[in-house]
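[job 4471] stage=fold_predict status=RUNNING
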Amino acid sequence: MVNYRIWLASVCLFCLSCSAFKYTAAPNLEPGVSRRLAEYRKAIIKGTNYNLELDIPGDRQAGIAAREVITFQMSDVTHPLQIDFKEDPAKLKSLAVNGKTTAIDHRDEHIIIAPEHLTKGSNRIEISFEAGNGALNRNADYLYTLFVPDRARTVFPCFDQPDLKATYTLTLMLPYDWTAIANAALQDSVQTGDRKTYRYATSDTLSTYLFAFAAGKFFRASERLAEGNNPKYVSDFLYRETDTAKLKTSIRSVFDLHAASLRYMEEWTGIPYPFQKFGFVAIPDFQFGGMEHPGAIQYKASAFFLDSGATKDQLNARSHVIAHETAHMWFGDLVTMNWFTDVWMKEVFANFIADKSMEAETGKDLFDLKFLLDHFPAAYGVDRTSGSNPIRQDLDNLKDAGTLYGNIIYHKAPVMMRQLERLMGEEKFQRGVQEYLKKFANGNASWPELISILDKYTDEDLQAWNKVWVNDVGRPVVDYKVEEERGKISAFTITQHPEYGNHRLWPQWVEVKFFYPGRTEEFSVNLNAETVQLPQAKGLNKPLFVLFNSSGQGYGLWPVDKEMFDRIYAIEKPLNRASAYITLYENMLTGRSISPVTLLNLLMKGLQKETEELNLKLITGYIGTIYWEFLSAADRAAASASLERTLWLALSEHGQANHKKLLFKSYQDIFASAEARDRLYRIWHTQAPPDGLKLTEDDYTTLAFSLALRGDADKDLVKKQLARISNPDRRTRFEFIMPAVSASVAERDAFFESLQQRANRGKEANVVAALYYLHHPLRQQTSAKYLRKSLEMLVEIQTTGDIFFPQNWLQATFSYYQHAEAADTVRSFLDENPDYNPKLKAKILQAADHVFKAEKLLRKD
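[job 4471] inference complete, writing structure tokens
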């Protein structure tokens, strides 16, 4: 029997593919890469190779001479061909098309090739130029490319769209003492005087955003990641870390984690590692946690190199980012989205499969806890706001692709995917995904194509499910009502409604747990209607309290029983406690069930009682947020002394070093008294922490800044800390942040003024770290004046920065403000700009959500 939904989806996909193949209407000439241009080029171009030579000098200010040969097949030469190059046209030196020198026509970020110079069949375009610096990330003695989502065109001419995959033949000419890594295997290297030439084999088929290399003064380690003699499993690791303690504890672990992730991915997908080599590089102050270039994965160095004092959360984060980027080799690299509308697909699978691979290592209980803590708070942080976005978003031009990224695709999407797996069953879900990977290997695919495959493996209505989970925004608000007869439950009714927006339902499975003296009862319920009954509850005694989402898999704003307040720390399972903490916090933000002061006092009790490290990190984070953002100045002053004492007592009583570090960081974050200052200064000055607490150079750095924020009596404290730092990359970072922590308002003003120049925002991670100190609550009397200008800079930030920078810029700027003036600044800016980019407006509303909620909660208080 034919499944009608599968047949209809297949017909629609066939029609779309046919229309794309026949689509030869001339696209408009406009900046960026429009969807119309991309569809046109996809219809007429195939078999592209970029042969690229770059002559990179040691001086970061000097230009990079480059030569490129682009070869490809064309099926239609009716219209001019647009080659993307977002750079000064003066950098283009010469152009030859099919052997004939041609005048350069560069307009609206494109090189225009007239039809008369092109031929049906094979074409060859030769370009001499100076490479653009937009995505080369040049530093004093190293550089690295970062081309996602459409920034390859800022460096070299190309067809910069994900569905025109190509091969790359790369040659790098470098200073003799530099080394390099690229997508493909090194073919040979030749040294001539003070220069060295690296020639790489032709790469695998890649989208332009995945083409990459890094070069500079790096150390190198090599390791075989799998048994046998296959050279693709021999991995090179480039790094700049010099701390011997971190190197000793990290390098072996990093190789082992990659090997384990590769084994898991090959087994789960049924496909051997699909590229010619595996390698990775750790980059100081990298913009992202990692980036999945095949053969040359890039990672943030600070998350990679950990010492013996690393917390469980830091270790888990390192394991996860390695599993995430390794998963991308299959999800995103082997099979790539057709268009960045579906960029979330590669991210959701990388996160979701990375989580599953870690389940095999950690066991189900820790996996469930980590999944809840990793994804739900971050997803709720966007989805509860008026600026929330659906998982799948429209995109007309790749120049705006960076606006699609955020916590919805990285954190709500894995929750959605886990619900989908549960709906289908693990085995059927895996079989469907394996079919998808094999069918589209080395090519491109879209979400509807995956759904049409998964539809074959289930009788569930995936289209209806998809509509609310993928194409809509928000979360359900869930409530319940208990009816009793003769002391027993006669009916247990659960209702749901949207937190905001139009009427809709979130079909999902969720667990509900009844707590009785000495025992519990847990039930699974399918929330597939506006009102559902829990028949298993009928006839039971009424429990002391009910915990919704006890398994940590349900998505929504859950009800809170006040009786749970006094019993929360008696809940046995860490997962149940974590779910309760999150539910309490989310209810506090909405103004129902619990106030900020009440929740702060409740969480303070847990500082000594909570035994799970991941939960302790959660509640110390919540304490800091409530203290700085949701307490009035009077309530903060009233709570300060008690919170200091409780934190220090808990630090003294906890036996585990990682627990002590979490509590120490929280103490350092909130301290206000002279006694606390003297205690922390002694620790910084003597570098002698309390017994059982291990502090690293980074810890002493943040401690120095924390003391300086409060106008420490030691005016040379920050300079003394700088003198302690030997690693050149960490010194550079520290020096950049110093003006933002300065006691001088004029110096801080000058620092913010400097950020208005693009050149001073090159190290985005450092900029974000500095903004945290610039806008700290203790400095807001003088920093609020930066808010309006920060909003006015956002369009340029989005245009010139990497994909996460607009979001990080806004979050670091607005996160700690709670007064009405800050909220009014946001409202007036948006009112005055009614035609503002809607995706950037959404980012503003997301970042300012705590400001609006604090304004409302404090007014209510």
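[job 4471] summary: The first strand starts at residue 45 and ends at 55.
[job 4471] exit 0
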